[in-house]
Amino acid sequence: MSAPVAAGPTIADVVFPDQLNHRGTLFGGAAIALMDRAAFVAASREARTDVVCAGADGIEFAHPIEPGDLVEANAVVERRGRRSMTVAVVVIAENLRTGERREAVRGTFHMVATEAPPQWLTTTEAPQGAAA
Amino acid sequence: MSAPVAAGPTIADVVFPDQLNHRGTLFGGAAIALMDRAAFVAASREARTDVVCAGADGIEFAHPIEPGDLVEANAVVERRGRRSMTVAVVVIAENLRTGERREAVRGTFHMVATEAPPQWLTTTEAPQGAAA
Amino acid sequence: MSAPVAAGPTIADVVFPDQLNHRGTLFGGAAIALMDRAAFVAASREARTDVVCAGADGIEFAHPIEPGDLVEANAVVERRGRRSMTVAVVVIAENLRTGERREAVRGTFHMVATEAPPQWLTTTEAPQGAAA
Amino acid sequence: MSAPVAAGPTIADVVFPDQLNHRGTLFGGAAIALMDRAAFVAASREARTDVVCAGADGIEFAHPIEPGDLVEANAVVERRGRRSMTVAVVVIAENLRTGERREAVRGTFHMVATEAPPQWLTTTEAPQGAAA
Amino acid sequence: MSAPVAAGPTIADVVFPDQLNHRGTLFGGAAIALMDRAAFVAASREARTDVVCAGADGIEFAHPIEPGDLVEANAVVERRGRRSMTVAVVVIAENLRTGERREAVRGTFHMVATEAPPQWLTTTEAPQGAAA
Amino acid sequence: MSAPVAAGPTIADVVFPDQLNHRGTLFGGAAIALMDRAAFVAASREARTDVVCAGADGIEFAHPIEPGDLVEANAVVERRGRRSMTVAVVVIAENLRTGERREAVRGTFHMVATEAPPQWLTTTEAPQGAAA
What we know:
The structure is a homohexamer.
Chain A: E1 11-14, H1 28-47, E2 51-61, E3 70-80, E4 84-94, E5 101-113
Antiparallel strand pairs in A: 1-3, 2-5, 3-4, 4-5
């Protein structure tokens, strides 16, 4: 029996002190690492083959993220070629006491299949909905 | 502007080697820590006040979780008293190459508010839906 | 030459900032992970075979644990069946400047042998002393 | 007495198992986090004020990085405006047994000063040498 | 109520994959870090004041430590001056399946009090029992 | 094509909160672990064979290291025998806002080759310059 894939955030976690920079907010590198994992999940679900990150673009930090916030990385496959995919990732930070949610980071990740996924050969031009 | 809370997993992440035990599967303690964070999120969203974990019960491991799997912890507030809540947490592991999803762990967490949340006083008997 | 097993704490460590929650005290999940490792050690020593955690119950947090405190998890095998063991774990926190020690967490862990340990077959009803 | 800033890599470390993905090579997010720290160092040295990462572009992974490799992130301030800087970062991986070194990742990071650094006001058009 | 200090290891933990070097055995630096924490605990208990590590000597690695082993660091205050202490630390590794225990590392740590502990002034020549 | 080894620090990183002790400065054990990795790099580059740390001596802490500082570990092979090397490591901490740099820790590490490196047999008495 296989449980259905839930709609909702691809990756989510509470910000803990071990992810902070010396200013006491979420370290930018930790945020990008979170986005990279979310892109990996969305691309893996889309292709059901092993994928790796080939690059990233357009990463923009809008707001610092505080310890104790919930961070959610939402990843959506936007374009899909024969062996590669473009995944848009948006990070939402939620203040768990006030409920305020706002976009904190966004960016685009390029994922490449490490093996030829046969089912892709017939669907390369099909536009994809979100995998996640 | 505040983005809406998404339905879906409360906490989710990919299993990386730094969370494995010496057998090469997800360390049980790491799984429980994930559940604890999910319970914290669900209870915080329910009460919008600061909460702490007072205890846990009925933790059951059904399947080992492999590196590269996605783990999702889904937390639902099941009962709510004047200053405390009971949160049920279920961990789903998804093999990202096959898409197979199965329940890996479940348990119940007891969360307590550290300050008196005024809005609770009038709603203590209201049955709650899922906070997450 | 084999050194004797020392009496004393099964697992012990100083609380460092990377184990704190956003409130600045030891993250509950980190405390449970410590207990899980202590239960693993006690059960492994008892059975001298590979064991895994099948579940946990009755976890109760009595006091928050501060950074710089020493935390000791003491694990004792309380009951032993043919292939499983029940391990009681108590966590003591010691303020290293004042010497004050107090119980911070307690709980019970269920450990299962992953292989049939032959020596168990003849000793299943023997009451156990502490393995640690 | 103040030791001179050494020429050479801005950030460097040996790749350890806790930074690997489930494929056993350096996790892409860990590589980007390394680059982010290198950009922070180069921009801090250039401006001698507190800086934060506002974004990143053109991140390209050329080769996987193996455990036991040395990774060096070299960051150079390429352009400097009134309150912002563009930092180019190149990651070199060195196989410590063969001595082979090759470029593994590159990217551009945008750093912003969080306070007005007075000395910048008179030097904004000065072409910059590398800060690192 | 204050629980008595247990005899036994000062610091103890199971070796997990996040502490391994690329050879798959416990990273030497992780072992020394464990010893440093054990020396801190022993010196803190001896002086009941805040102490810091001023140096270390005679660190010798005798055997590699495998993942899944229990490592115990036993720290004993050997000499105590007006504001400083010398702490001998021995690390024992225990194979939890065979029960074999052997000395893996030893070394000496020099600890210094950061504040003048009044009770020391009258007891500097008093021979010390082990603090741990 | 192989990029040249850069002169400069062997290992370098920014100090983040997850490496602090409870006093809020770099944990001594983390500093020693950094030095151990630097010694490993210098000895590996010297011998181009696999090396392990056999011991350490003369570790001296001169100044505490603050979060946000850059730490650089510079390792130089000082003596080289048939199968072993002595590596001197100096840690410099740089305050990135003021540019002040000062020596924070120093020590000597003893590294041993785990396999016989043939090229060593003819050069055992040759004094070595810095490998890093």
